[in-house]
Amino acid sequence: MLFLSILVALTVNTADIDKKPHSGETVVESPEPKALVVYYSRTGTTEKVGELIAVALNGDTEKIIDKKDRSGVWGYIVAGKDAGFGNETEIEPTKHDPSDYDLVIIGTPIWAWSMAPAVRTYINQNKGNFKNVVFFTTSGGTGYDKVVPSMEDLIGKEAIFKNGFLEKEVKDDSPGMVKKLNNMIDFIKRHFES
């Protein structure tokens, strides 16, 4: 139930409110970027954040599917090893071409102080196809500042915005998560107004 409340709050906070112009004024609507939210999520945490961002921006979503089974304890261990060593993995074909979008927002869980192998693979497969990027991470405690620089190096450009979400704040639908999401959405909209 709280998840739906957050979704409504994000939509209301970021919606363009129809203001009637005073006599002689014209209203110029700022174009929203055509946005694609791409994420990999093993447990649903990164997916939850990605879906909220997509709704707030009226964007498309692309869930990266890793062909390697990463479920259970063994999957968790192998995932950490693969991430820590900077390994790629085999992913399912994606349905959206990132070059068709003004903005691609990429989300990854942090494993062993690194991006998930499926995200590394996605970035490598689409290098040169990103006009503007935003990165977000989810983790148990590692800050996004430990992972985003390697994502920027891999993609070959600096993100226009980056943010990290703690697993606990996402699972609890905390006000801190809502504030971070609103800051991200507001920044993105302002960026594309100019």
Summarize the topology:
Layout lengths: L1 H13 L20 E5 L5 H13 L2 E4 L8 H13 L18 E9 L2 E2 L1 H9 L7 E7 L8 H8 L5 E6 H5 L3 H19 L1
Parallel strand pairs: 1-2, 1-3, 3-5, 5-6
Antiparallel strand pairs: 3-4
Helix pairs in contact: 1-2, 1-7
Notes on the structure:
- This protein is of the alpha/beta class and 194 residues long.
- The chain has one domain: Flavodoxin domain (Rossmann fold, 3-Layer(aba) Sandwich).
- Helices cover 41% and strands 17% of the residues.
- The protein is built from 7 helices and 6 strands, in the order αβαβαββαβαβαα.
- It has helices spanning 2-14, 45-57, 72-84, 117-125, 148-155, 167-171, 175-193; strands at residues 35-39, 60-63, 103-111, 114-115, 133-139, 161-166.
- Strands 1, 2, 3, 4, 5 and 6 form a 6-stranded mixed β-sheet that branches.
- Helix 1 runs parallel beside helix 2 and helix 1 runs parallel beside helix 7 (175-193).
- The radius of gyration is 17 Å and the shape is globular.
- It starts with a helix and ends with a helix.
- Mean pLDDT is 86; it is low at 11-22.
